[in-house]
Write a structure and sequence with these properties.
It is a single chain. The chain folds into 3 domains: about 200 residues, tricorn interacting facor f3 domain (Immunoglobulin-like); about 90 residues, Zincin-like (2-Layer Sandwich), CATH 3.30.2010.30; about 130 residues, Neutral Protease Domain 2 (Neutral Protease, domain 2). Helices cover about 25% and strands about 35% of the residues. The protein has 9 helices and 24 strands. The strands form 5 sheets. Strands 1, 2, 4, 5, 8, 12, 14, 15 and 16 form a 9-stranded mixed sheet that branches. The protein is globular and about 65 Å long.
């Protein structure tokens, strides 16, 4: 059952207002999926445990291109629904009151594929030998019906049936695998609150290999190369646990595809890399995606405008790992990227970058540089105390920029009205980087 700190807001977000429905929240998804890679055919039944947030006589469920064929509400067939290319609309004869809880079951099928967005093609992607999901920020409805809002997090049970020659990895702790005929069924359970864009599935001619406390999923032919590239991961976990606290997820799975991917992708308890990310100079990307398990997947934002709390912290973690691994120090990394950032356009407000600039690299680097400015202002020990308080107090909770400023005020004594925040968060010009402190 959701607490106040995990409930979404019952109003449209200024970013992506057409995604999701603020009149309700989903507490749990049960997904039963059957996929045929040869034809890219997906058949599914999604059961959504719904909590009504605002009195209404209709609800909207995001579902892109796939066809909903049958609907049940409270276990009974529900015929009052319609569908367009982006969603299913349910209508009710009697008004649903705020606080009501019930289940909606949706049977659907089709050939899933990515959807176009301002940030390129996102969602379900068919591969040469299988499929993967890259949903950030609004691609989840390409493969399951959902309330696709960044602030609506739920738990999940996923049952995925596929041809027996394929391996399946999905969000959640792996469970029992069973076989019947020419198919195999895989089960996954996620007990931590998870946003829809952080739910992923991978289908491929893979095998599973242990690495530290986690596992690597990759084609056998490239395991030797992958093992060498990802061998630092167990040490990364140790370093980040020292800096940020205990690893917060129920699973640690790394998928390395045989295809080249433009960028790595994080999901809850999971990260995906292309074979091209096995190069020796790509360790920063491994550190970045691993850090998201703390920042973005555990401590998660309630609105996309605050994405710097995800990406700035993950970028800073790259510098933490660089120093721990004997590379550039945190201060040297910061100085290097500051020199590059001041030569970029000065038209971005970190606390509200705008929908189109959501994944602009300047958001990542400016967010990390803000953190380094804070460290240089309060000293290393106090800064690390801030990070520990932040991760511990808001473990698996929704946050905004104001929450981080409140933690800093409590631990370090810097008020939310301080010039530090005004310059880095709310003004466009990149401010000076404070000198390195020895405190």
């Amino acid at each position: 059952m959701k607490s106040l700190s995990t409930l979404p807001t019952a109003f449209p977000h200024p970013y992506m207002p057409d995604s999701g429905d603020g009149r309700y929240s989903v507490e749990h998804y049960e997904l039963e999926l059957d996929y045929t890679p040869r034809t890219n055919r997906l058949e599914g039944t999604a059961t959504l445990r719904v909590l009504v947030l605002e009195a209404t006589k209709s609800l909207r469920v995001d579902l892109h291109a796939l066809k909903a064929s049958k609907m049940k509400v409270r276990g009974k067939v529900h015929k009052q629904f319609s569908q367009d290319r982006r969603s299913v609309q349910l209508k009710f004869g009697d008004r649903l009151e705020a606080g009501a809880r019930f289940e909606v079951e949706i049977e659907y099928a089709g050939r899933p594929g990515p959807t176009r967005s301002k940030w390129g093609q996102i969602g379900w992607e068919e591969l040469e030998n299988g499929a993967l999901v890259a949903s950030q920020p609004t691609g989840a409805p390409t493969w399951f019906p959902c309330n696709d809002r960044v602030d609506d997090r739920a738990t999940y049970d996923i049952t995925f049936t596929c041809d027996k020659d394929f391996f399946v990895a999905a969000t959640g702790k792996p469970g029992r695998v069973s076989s019947r005929g020419g198919k195999r069924t895989w089960r996954f359970a996620s007990s931590v609150p998870t946003a829809t864009y952080l739910v992923a599935v991978h289908v491929g001619e893979y095998r599973e290999y242990k690495l530290g406390t986690g596992r690597i999923v990759t084609p056998p032919a490239q395991w030797s190369r992958v093992r060498q590239a990802f061998s630092p991961m167990p040490k990364m976990v140790e370093v980040f646990e020292d800096w940020f606290g205990e690893y917060p997820q129920v699973d640690l799975t790394t998928v390395v595809t045989e295809e080249e991917l433009e960028i790595p992708l994080e999901a809850q308890g999971m990260a995906t890399f292309g074979v091209n990310h096995c190069a020796p100079d790509e360790q920063r990307l491994i550190a970045h995606e691993l850090a998201h398990q703390w920042f973005g997947n555990s401590v998660d934002i309630r609105q996309w405008a605050d994405i710097w709390l995800n990406e700035g912290f993950a970028c800073y973690a790259e510098w933490v790992w660089s120093e721990a691994a004997g590379g550039r120090t945190i201060a040297e990394c910061a100085q290097h990227h500051y020199g590059r950032l001041v030569r970029e356009r000065q038209d971005l407000v970190l606390a509200d970058p705008g929908e189109k600039q959501l994944f602009d690299d300047r958001v990542y680097k400016r967010g990390a540089l803000l953190l380094e400015s804070l460290r240089r202002t309060v000293g290393n020990d106090v800064f690390r105390a801030v990070l520990h308080r932040w991760v511990t107090e808001y473990r698996h909770r929704l946050v905004g920029t104001e929450d981080f400023l409140a933690v800093v005020e409590e631990v370090a004594g810097i008020p939310p009205q301080a010039d530090l925040w005004k310059a880095w968060l709310y003004e466009k010009p990149v401010p000076p980087l404070p000198p390195v402190t020895s405190a």
